[in-house]
Write a structure and sequence with these properties.
The protein is α+β, with helices and mostly antiparallel strands and 317 residues long. It has 7 helices and 17 strands. A 9-stranded mixed β-sheet has the order 1-2-6-7-10-13-14-15-17, with helices on one face. A hairpin with an 8-residue loop joins strand 8 and strand 9. Helix 1 packs antiparallel against helix 6. The protein starts with a strand and ends with a strand. 41% of the residues are buried. GO terms for molecular function: transferase activity. This is FAD:protein FMN transferase.
């Protein structure tokens, strides 16, 4: 079966968009234009964007934003108030550490404690009627890096569905969203799960799933080496320091990519047992946990849908 793939650069990463029919080829560029638009609106890595206008007005006044921005901010705030491990207001801490950038450094405990005063999601006021957002304390900053790519991937899938694209793959830098049925007789897709110890092309296992999202968070791509220690970029909003556990990667399988983004943060923060408890009301979200000793655990919904393909890993469920 022929396929048509275009590669782009946006959202700070390499993006691969694929369709399987020549008549759908124009929707690759259309999807890229959509990505550019959302990036312009939601980025915090430029001085100007709708999200930065909210941050610049912290402690001063509310800011009216577009429906796009308001919808994603509201979702991020709701999740932040409901769960430990995800915090839409974590921007001041992220900028303090700045892991993944040239000026990354290990801050002092005093600096961390000062920033911790600015990451309370309860200090975010939302007004549904005006679609406005108000950060009550000066110095507060939203950072939607843990949710924006998923939101954008879902928007692309909606765009393709509205234009009757039957089959495709949305890959936003390793954040995968499948569109339509696969070419296999059972209509399911086979998707490799990236090994956190090897190059991006190496897989530790294989998923056999419908047109779901596959989102992976790990400590292996963005980290800071200092004083003989490695500090990864996944920060604990309760301590201000990188999350401390034995995980190296968490992969989430879910119908929507934004759901996968949220649960990758929650899974990494809460580890396997507590995550299984949190998943009690989720019927279609599954997680794969990969540990430093190469042991792998999967939540109940993925049992029978995932298998190890690299025998250096061990499935212990």
């Amino acid at each position: 079966m022929p396929k048509f793939t275009n590669t782009y650069h946006a959202l700070g990463t390499k993006i691969n968009l694929t369709v399987y029919s020549e008549i759908d080829w124009p929707y690759l560029d259309e999807a890229y234009h959509l990505i550019q638009h959302y990036e312009d609106v939601l980025t915090v890595n430029r001085s100007k964007s709708e999200l930065m206008s909210i941050n610049h007005a912290s402690g001063k006044h509310a800011v009216k934003v577009s429906s796009i921005s308001y919808q994603i901010v509201k979702k991020a705030v709701e999740v932040s108030l409901e769960n430990d491990g995800f915090n839409a207001a974590i921007g001041p801490l992220v900028k303090l550490w700045h892991i993944g950038f040239s000026n990354a450094h290990v801050p002092t405990d005093e600096q961390i404690q000062e920033r911790m005063k600015l990451i309370d999601p309860k200090q975010i006021v939302l007004n549904d009627d005006e679609k406005s957002v108000y950060l009550l304390k000066e110095g507060m900053e939203l950072d939607l890096g843990g949710i924006a790519k998923g939101y954008i991937a879902d928007a692309i899938k909606d765009l393709w569905h509205s234009n009757h694209v039957e089959r495709g793959i949305i890959d936003l830098g390793g954040n995968i969203l499948l569109v339509g049925d696969s070419k296999h007789s059972d209509k399911l897709w086979n998707v490799g799960v990236q090994s956190p110890f090897d190059h991006r092309s190496e897989s530790l296992g294989m998923l056999h799933i419908p047109d779901f999202s596959i989102v992976t968070s790990g400590i292996y791509e963005r980290f800071l080496k200092s004083g003989g220690h490695n500090y990864h970029h996944i920060l604990d909003p309760k301590t201000g320091y990188p999350v401390q556990n034995d995980l190296v990667g968490v992969t989430v399988v879910s119908p929507m990519s934004i759901t996968g983004e949220i649960w990758s943060s929650l899974g990494f923060y809460n580890d396997y047992d507590k995550t299984e408890d949190l998943l009690a009301d989720e019927q279609d979200v599954g997680l794969i946990f990969v540990y430093k000793d190469r042991e792998v655990r999967v939540t109940k919904i993925l049992k029978g849908k995932f298998k190890i393909t690299d025998d250096s890993f061990k499935l212990i469920n």
